[in-house]
Amino acid sequence: MSIRLVIADDQALVRGALAALLGLEPDIEVVAELGDGTGVAAAVVEHRADVAMLDVEMPGLDGISAAAAVRRAAPSCRVLMVTTFGRPGYLKRAMQAGASGFVVKDTPARQLAEAVRRVHQGLRVVDPVLAAESLTAGDSPLTEREGEVLKAASDGGTVADIAKSAMLSEGTVRNYLSAAMAKTGGRTRAEAARIAEDNGWLL
Amino acid sequence: MSIRLVIADDQALVRGALAALLGLEPDIEVVAELGDGTGVAAAVVEHRADVAMLDVEMPGLDGISAAAAVRRAAPSCRVLMVTTFGRPGYLKRAMQAGASGFVVKDTPARQLAEAVRRVHQGLRVVDPVLAAESLTAGDSPLTEREGEVLKAASDGGTVADIAKSAMLSEGTVRNYLSAAMAKTGGRTRAEAARIAEDNGWLL
DNA sequence: AATGAGGGATGACAAATGTCATGCGCTAGC
DNA sequence: GCTAGCGCATGACATTTGTCATCCCTCATT
Known about the structure:
homodimer, alpha/beta, Rossmann fold, Arc Repressor Mutant, subunit A, six-stranded parallel sheet, 15% strand, DNA-binding
C-alpha cells in the first residue's frame, strides 16, 4: 500500500519537479498538486492523503495556516513542511500548528523520500541545527501589534503610511516601532524588520 | 544524441528534483549538478555540456556572472536562466551576459524540457510578459555608486554604517541615497531599496 | 577648449524618526 | 482588589534623515 501524498508549493516548476522526484519512489504516490494553501485541506480529504507536503511561503493561505487546516480536517494525515528559509520561528509555529516534520530546501534530494516515509510512520523529522536555533531564538518577543506595525514598516513606507494602514496615530506607531527596535536589537526600523523577518517572527 | 545538461541551483532539493524531472526525458542527460556558480564554467567544459541551466540567486558567483563565464569558456554551450523572481533587470542583464533563455520558476513543469530543447537548438526562450516589462523598466537609472550605497542601505544600517562600509563621508552617502530615492521614486531609502531590488537593479 | 556626467565632499536647513515620560482603559493573574 | 502587561494616545525632545546649493577633480565627448 503506497503512501498517498499531496504537494503544495507556489512555484510550479519546483512543485512539478518534486512530484517527479517522489513519483519515482515505488512506495509513494502523488495524488494532488496545489499552487496555494487554500485548497489543501479539501484536497487531503478528497484524495484521502496520508501525507501533505507544504511550502511555508505561499500566496493565499500560508503553509502554517494550511497545516493547521489539514490537521483539523484530517487528523490522520501527517504534515511535512518544506521551506526555503530555515527560520527558527517558522519551525516553532509549524510544530505548534501540528506539523510532524520540517525540512529546508537545501537538504539533499535523497533524504526527501525518507523524510516522507518517516513522517508517514508517525515519526518527527526536524533539521537538528534548526531545532537548536529554535530553542534560543524561537519565540517572538514582539507583541501582536508590534509585529503588525513592524510588518507594515518592512516595505519601506513612512510612519504616516503605517499609521494609516494600521489605523493608529503616528505617535503610537513610533512607540511600537521603538519597542520593536529595542526588543530585536535593531538600530533602525529597517534593521529591526530584517531581524524579525530572519527569525520568522513576521508573517 | 542526447542533450548534455548542467544544472546549478543553490537549493539541493530543487536541484535534485529538477534533475529528476529532466532526467525522465529520453533526449536529455544531466551530466552535472552544482550548488553554486563558481564551478559552473569548469563543469561545462569538463563534461562538454550543450546547455547550462542556472539559477540567478546563488551564493559565491551569481547566475548572471556564471552565465558570462560559461559563454567565455565554452561559446557553443547555451545558457538557460531559471529564476524565482521575474525581475526585468535580471532578464536584461542575463541576455547581455549571453543567456539564450530566461524562465521563472512558476512556469508549468511540462514546459521546462521544451525550453531546454529550444535553447539547445539556438532559439531564444523568454517569458513574453517579462519581456514587455523589461522594455519599460529594464534599465537601471542608478549609477554604480548609487547602486552600491543603496545595496548597503538595504539591510537597514544607519548612514554611519553605510559610510563606513563604502568608505565615504556621511554627507556623500546621504547625497547618493537622495539621488537614488529621486530616481526610483521611493520616499524613504528603504522604499527605494525595495523598488530597486524588485526591478533587479541591485546585486 | 569647452561641456557634461560622475565621484567625492561640505554646510545649512527642514522634515522625519527615535526616545521618553506620562496618561487612560482593559484584561488576566495573584 | 491589586498589579502587571498590553493597546492606544499625547507631547516634548534630541538625532537622524532627506534636500539643496555649492564646490573640486577627473575623464570622455564634442
